[in-house]
């Protein structure tokens, strides 16, 4: 999975790239294979380092070469957040295992982080429960050094923030679909990086991407290029019990699995007054359109279908007033912006479609073409409008594709690191 981009991966099993590999015993013990250059050193939490068996309090005559220390949570810590990771240092270790068990001895599932220096439970821990973490480091002498830390999680907090996803499991979306996660309360800027570290995305095939905060309550993820057709996406937010500032904590974890459908794209040329529809790179239809007239122009830029309404009513009286406002029944409406730009059937303008712009900013098509589009599009399908008098405003809808990649990554709470170039020179 990716936290901020491809190279930040938490897999319940393996770190991609092959530098470190997690093995599992009953899927409950994570093992990290390290080279000497990948070992870490550092201070301790008072737990000490593990050694060979010997008399209590007496140093071993031939201690193991490897050592380990748990730095978080410290031994006997109380009121530990339920989102805690097990953070540790090892020295001269070629293999490290991490185990976590509750007070009844039941093992907790989890996985090593990409940096190999921490282990994160698969889900939030229980509130008010006592756990014991065990880290065992083994050196090239084959002798293990073991260290433990017993700690107690905090009581269930009274102030919790709900975390939700726009998409639900098993949805099939268009190639321009951003992943959207919302929070029931604004996340302070100084907490967003930690939240983003707990947000991972896995795609098959793998594609570089990043999260961008569009507001204190909403963060979105897009790949560097449009999703590849057929991509399987799984994204996870491990924020249950995570401190979110001001005494607030994440209420829940979140996991969503979706799939990208065929690659359908729409391109509208204002000069030609035509929409060209391609599927998997092949032109499948050309449609006459009427765009917004000069006083209410359509936006130029790349948008995506946000929602589809077979029948709806456009009511602009509150916005435009009694003189200019209107209330009209609409068929085959597909929203493109928050401001009210749609693709929709407009039988009243069929005579102008392909010739003149007469709409209030929407992409007008005939009833027959509106029905065809409606039956062939999905939420997340991109549409690019070119050559109008107004540029698409970033933030007026799902405008992730209205920005260059260089501009988009600036919205991440974590520094952007380009994916490694794996091509051979």
TrEMBL record:
One Pfam family here: YkuD
Keyword Oxidoreductase carried by entry: no
Region of interest called Disordered, as start-end residue ranges on this chain: 41-65
Keyword tRNA processing on entry: no
PROSITE patterns: LD_TPASE (PS52029)
Active site: 344 (proton donor/acceptor), 362 (nucleophile)
Gly residues: bias regions: 41-54
Pathway(s) of this molecule: Cell wall biogenesis; peptidoglycan biosynthesis
InterPro entries linked to this entry: Big_10, LD-transpeptidase, LD_TPept_cat_dom, Transpep_catalytic_dom
Keywords: Acyltransferase, Cell shape, Cell wall biogenesis/degradation, Peptidoglycan synthesis, Transferase
Coiled coil: none
CDD domains: LDT_IgD_like_2, YkuD_like
Residue ranges annotated for the L,D-TPase catalytic domain, each copy included: 264-386
Protein name per Swiss-Prot or TrEMBL: L,D-transpeptidase
Lineage, highest ranks first: Bacteria, Bacillati, Actinomycetota, Actinomycetes, Micromonosporales
């Amino acid at each position: 999975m990716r936290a901020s981009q491809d190279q930040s991966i938490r897999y319940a099993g393996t770190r991609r790239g092959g530098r470190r590999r997690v093995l599992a015993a009953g899927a409950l013990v994570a093992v990290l294979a390290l080279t000497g250059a990948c070992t870490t050193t550092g201070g301790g939490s008072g737990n000490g380092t593990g050694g060979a068996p010997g008399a209590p309090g007496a140093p071993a005559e031939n201690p193991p070469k490897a050592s380990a220390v748990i730095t978080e949570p410290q031994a006997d810590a109380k009121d530990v957040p339920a989102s805690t990771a097990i953070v540790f240092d090892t020295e001269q270790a070629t293999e490290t295992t991490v185990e976590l068990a509750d007070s009844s001895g039941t093992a907790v599932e989890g996985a090593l982080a990409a940096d190999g220096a921490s282990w994160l439970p698969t889900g939030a821990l229980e509130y008010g429960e006592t756990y014991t973490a065990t880290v065992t480091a083994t050196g090239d002498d084959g002798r293990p050094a073991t260290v433990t830390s017993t700690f107690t999680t905090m009581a269930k907090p009274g102030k919790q923030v709900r975390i939700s996803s726009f998409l639900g499991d098993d949805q099939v979306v268009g190639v321009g679909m951003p992943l959207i996660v919302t929070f029931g309360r604004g996340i302070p800027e100084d907490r967003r990086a930690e939240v983003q570290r707990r947000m991972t995305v896995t795609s098959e095939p793998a594609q570089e991407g990043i999260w961008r905060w569009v507001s204190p309550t909403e963060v979105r993820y897009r790949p560097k290029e449009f999703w590849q057709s057929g991509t399987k996406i799984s994204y996870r937010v491990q924020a249950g019990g995570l401190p979110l500032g001001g005494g607030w904590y994440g209420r829940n974890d979140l996991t969503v699995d979706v799939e990208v459908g065929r690659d359908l794209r729409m391109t509208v040329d204002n000069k030609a007054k035509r929409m060209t529809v391609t599927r998997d790179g092949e032109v499948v239809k050309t449609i006459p359109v009427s765009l917004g007239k000069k006083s209410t122009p359509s936006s130029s830029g790349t948008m995506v279908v946000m929602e589809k309404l077979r029948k709806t009513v456009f009511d602009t009286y509150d916005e435009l007033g009694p003189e200019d406002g209107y209330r009209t029944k609409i068929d085959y409406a597909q929203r493109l912006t928050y401001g009210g730009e749609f693709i929709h059937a407009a039988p009243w303008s069929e005579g102008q479609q392909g010739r003149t712009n007469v709409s209030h900013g929407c992409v007008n098509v005939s009833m027959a073409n509106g029905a065809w589009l409606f039956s062939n599009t999905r939420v997340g399908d991109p549409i690019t409008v070119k050559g109008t008098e107004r540029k698409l405003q970033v933030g007026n809808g799902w405008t992730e594709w209205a920005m260059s990649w260089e501009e988009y990554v600036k919205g991440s709470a974590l520094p952007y690191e380009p994916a490694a170039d794996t091509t051979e020179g």
